[in-house]
Automatic annotation (TrEMBL):
BP GO annotations: D-xylose metabolic process
UniProt cross-references to InterPro entries, sorted A to Z: ATPase_NBD, ROK, ROK_cs, WH-like_DNA-bd_sf, WH_DNA-bd_sf
Superkingdom of the source species: Bacteria
Family: Belongs to the ROK (NagC/XylR) family.
Function: Transcriptional repressor of xylose-utilizing enzymes.
Name of this chain's protein: ROK family protein
Keyword field: Carbohydrate metabolism, Xylose metabolism
């Protein structure tokens, strides 16, 4: 008789399921797990023992008894290790050190004097080393690193093009993996932001979600059925370059009338430079003026809100999402853009499509990308919960 099942593989899968159940429903008992996933109690107990041995699960005080002996409750040990998330932005890096549940322990903004890959890589290395110096004792130390890049990243983690950084074909992976280990994830910043908002932010309950990153340009991360939609070449989501005005302004991509030439932070600032020709107002100053009732500022944000609504109506019609989350810089002006934006969606999208679609502003503020980036190595680490990986007494394994 041919053996069709791989016992080791099945055991590994079951262990991941047990760990996921504990993470999602903690605190709970072994009997609760058994009831929840339908594995027998002996198997659950043996897998839980292994997870306790590998420091990923801890036992805590007894829970409520339903008659007999009080059961011991299990918790996910979110401090078994840590991850670093980095958002490479246009003027600086935002870096976070998080535990395995995404709680921020350390945060750092590093200004970038220049954008050459060498300089940015050096700042990334320095930041990770600084984080690891102040790392609490833990069995696994830093388990991995995630980086969000404002550009196209292929499925081999190579940055194919990042126009705002003037990068073409930059390989961050090779030079960082040699120092920090292979659990290193490099992705488009909007994809990372989408994952961040799905796991920890406004999109936790949504299965079909579009995260819009609106800064100098407009990018998006599209989550379909709970998973990121990556497209054939990993380049999906460039919604900023959908044409919304046939003869509109020239875009940096070469096309005319791209959505981001009309509704991004840059579009807003270009317009502001014409309205207030004697002073260079930034987004924060324009927001402040609008909150004070300055009519030109109010009108300008209203215009941008309406233009945002045009593209959003297209996305609602095409993808019929449950939720659109607007993140990055322009979300700072959310309350001022909202009315015109919602009105335009209402006027321009198909009624059956928008019925169940909601629009929200990012819960994680400007941290969506950094937190989403940090979650990628955590997901990878937890999918291979192997006690052999734990390096006892080493606070910074892999460094
Ligand atoms: Zn374009």
């Amino acid at each position: 008789m041919k053996i069709t099942g791989d016992q080791q593989l099945i055991k590994k899968m079951n262990k991941t399921i047990v760990l996921d159940t504990i993470r999602q429903r903690q605190p709970l008992s072994r009997a609760d797990i058994s009831a929840a996933i339908g594995l027998n109690k002996a198997t659950v107990s043996s897998l839980v023992s292994e997870l306790i041995d590998s420091h990923l699960v801890t036992e805590m005080g007894p829970g409520e008894s339903s008659g007999g002996r009080k059961p011991t409750l299990l918790h996910f040990n979110r401090s078994a290790g840590y991850a670093v998330g980095i958002d490479i932005r246009v003027n600086d890096l935002l870096a976070v050190l998080v535990d395995l549940e995404g709680h921020v322990l350390q945060e750092k903004t590093v200004p970038l004097a220049d954008f050459t890959p060498e300089h940015v890589l050096e700042q990334i290395r320095k930041t990770i080393r600084q984080f690891s110096k102040k790392l609490p004792e833990s069995p696994y130390g830093i388990v991995g690193i995630g980086i969000g890049v404002p550009g196209l990243v292929d499925d081999k983690s190579r940055v194919v093009s990042a126009p705002n950084l003037d990068w073409n074909q930059v390989d961050l992976y090779e030079s960082l993996a040699s120092e920090f280990g292979p659990n290193l994830h490099i992705d488009n910043e909007a994809n990372a932001g989408a994952i961040g908002e799905k796991l920890y932010g406004a999109g936790r309950e949504a299965q079909n979600l579009i995260y819009l990153s609106i800064g100098i340009g407009i990018g998006s991360g599209i989550i379909v059925g709970g998973e990121l939609y990556r497209g054939t070449s990993n380049f999906s989501g460039e919604v900023g370059h959908m044409t919304v005005a046939e003869n509109g302004p020239l875009c940096r991509c070469g096309n005319r009338g791209c959505w981001e030439t009309l509704a991004s932070e840059k579009a807003l600032l270009d317009r502001a430079a014409k309205l207030w020709s004697d002073s260079h107002l930034d987004l924060e100053e324009i927001i402040q003026l609008a909150r004070g009732g300055e009519p030109r500022a109010v009108q300008l944000l209203d215009e941008i809100g309406a233009r945002l609504g045009v593209g959003l109506a297209n996305l609602v019609n095409i993808l019929n999402p449950e939720l659109i989350v607007i993140g990055n810089r322009l979300s700072l002006a959310g309350d001022l853009l909202q009315d015109a934006m919602l009105r335009t969606i209402e006027n321009r999208s198909l009624s059956y499509h928008r019925k169940k679609s909601g629009v929200a502003f990012a819960n994680l503020g400007i941290r969506s990308t950094a937190l989403g980036a940090a979650s990628m190595p955590i997901t990878m680490f937890l999918s291979e919960p192997d006690p052999a990986l734990a390096q006892e007494g080493s606070p910074s394994a892999g460094l």
